[in-house]
Design a protein that fits this description.
Helices cover 39% and strands 16% of the residues. It contains 16 helices and 15 strands. The protein is globular and about 60 Å long. Bound molecules: 4-nitrophenyl beta-D-glucopyranoside.
């Protein structure tokens, strides 16, 4: 193949998340989220940064859209902040919060950009955390109510929706590892949280469908290709369990109504709080599968791991054969090809959207204000070629969203990792935005619907 080409009507976009870009953390009636609380807690964010202002997109979203237009983009994946809509997580709707997303959606539509909102990109209302958070089963019902409010408010103009962002990551990092909000480190809380989130996915889907039967609804799943560390059968089985846990824990449930076989001694249904009839609640015919992927995972068998998977990743993120991003994540485009093809095989050629893929590099402006971030261009070339190859091989991929539009608040790393196609000057009170060379390159690719390899 000498050209990576994409089908007509392919969606070219970028992805962002409310807490990472919006700022205005307590403006216009917004309630506190678990990320506000977490970032305000001494020692939780490596750099001491917070998302109080972030990129100030709450006030500067028109500048963001200007950048998207410069890149010829026709899709924008953003997230809705639950505590902006429902400050206490439930009860009274905050009209000013609704109004903000009305303005954002209208501005996107007038720029011919498809709005693709995610309902939950990790900013749970703190009031619901105080009431038990995701380990508490009732949170699923509260989430479905919130999903219903959003669909009623925006469903007349928004056709494509995502329920969750990376359910495995926020349940693991927030409840087991504790380096993300709410910072719990408890296996039982974690196991219960995973089941509540699965129920919430089902309940939210049904609530949204009830209001708009023709809406297209999916979730953005964190995915990684899982490769055995060695040649042993034990490592091969471990890699398969890791796949079941990392990639499928919220997907197999939705599409097949069963938990995948991730735990060596069987799924811990009791500890997860699974009740009779629950598998009917978690099963939903998602209209498309969102794939967020950054790198691969090398997995080895480990008999005494505390979670019961008897599988652990070797090294932090990826392997050691490819180049590393500034975050230390291995650049490994085949991971994206492999996972697209596996999901295509195992779930009967579903509609797929790449909902996140990207890299962190520190390159900043030179004296001419040019940001020459060639490593990022190389990254996107490799991964986009992998997507094109998967389409050629029969996968039904409809869109690609680079993570991310803007350098932004990278969770526990603060502003230390820059993933943007657009540079943001965090020293500047106006948070000025400058398109990087990678952004110019990406704009040409979207305009030409492909590129020469
Ligand atoms: C994703 N991991 O998070 C999120 O959806 C984004 O909000 C985030 O900024 C982006 O990727 C870059 O980190 C992840 O450890 C966090 O495998 C951690 C992992 C993967 C994705």
């Amino acid at each position: 193949m000498s050209r990576a080409s994409f089908p007509e009507g392919f969606h070219w976009g970028t992805a962002t998340a409310s807490y990472q870009i919006e700022g205005a953390w307590k403006e216009d009636g917004k309630g506190e989220s678990i990320w506000d609380r977490f970032a305000h807690t001494e020692g939780k964010i490596r750099t001491g940064d917070t998302g109080d202002i972030a990129c100030d997109s709450y006030h500067c979203f028109n500048d963001d859209i200007g950048m998207m237009r410069e890149m010829n983009l026709n899709s924008y994946r953003f997230s809705i902040s639950w505590p902006r809509i429902l400050p206490e997580g439930t009860g009274t709707v905050n009209a000013k919060g609704i109004d903000y997303y009305h303005r954002l959606i209208d501005a996107l539509l007038s720029a011919d950009i498809r709005p693709l909102p995610t309902l939950y990109h990790w900013d749970l209302p703190q009031a619901l955390e105080a009431a038990g958070g995701w380990p508490e089963r009732d949170t699923a019902g509260r989430f479905a109510d919130y999903a219903d409010v959003c669909m009623r408010a925006f469903g007349d103009r928004v056709d494509h929706w995502m329920i969750f962002n990376e359910p495995t990551i926020f349940t693991v990092m927030g409840h087991l590892v504790g380096i993300h909000a709410p910072g719990r480190k408890n296996l039982d809380d974690f196991l219960r949280a995973t089941h509540t989130v699965n129920i919430a996915q089902g309940e939210a889907f049904r609530a949204m469908r009830a209001t708009r039967s023709d809406a297209k609804i999916g979730t953005a799943f964190n995915m990684t290709s899982c490769e055995p560390a060695g040649d042993s059968e034990a490592d091969a089985d471990a890699a398969e369990r890791w796949h079941c846990f990392m990639n499928l824990w919220y997907l197999e449930t939705a599409l097949k109504g069963r938990y995948p076989d991730a735990f060596v001694n069987g799924t811990p249904f009791d500890k997860m709080g699974v009740r009779e009839g629950d598998m009917d609640l978690v099963k939903v015919p998602l209209d498309f599968i969102g794939i967020n992927l950054y790198t691969r995972t090398i997995v080895k068998h480990k008999p005494d791991d505390p979670w019961g998977l008897q599988a652990v990743p070797v090294g932090p993120m990826g392997g050691n054969d490819g180049p590393k991003t500034a975050f230390g994540w291995e650049v490994w485009p085949d991971a994206l090809y492999d996972i697209i093809m596996r999901i295509t095989r195992d779930y009967d050629t579903p509609v797929i959207e790449i909902t996140e893929n990207g890299c962190s590099y520190p390159d900043g402006p030179d004296s001419m204000n040019v940001i020459d971030d060639q490593p990022r261009i190389d990254f996107y070339r490799g991964y986009l070629a992998a997507v094109a190859r998967s389409i050629e091989d029969g996968a039904d991929v409809r869109g690609y969203h680079a993570w991310t539009l803007l350098d932004n608040f990278e969770w526990s790393e603060g502003f230390a990792q820059r993933f943007g196609l657009v540079w943001v000057d965090f020293e500047d009170p106006a948070r000025s935005r400058t398109l990087k060379e990678s952004g110019r390159w990406y704009g040409r690719v979207s305009a030409e619907n492909g590129f020469e390899i």
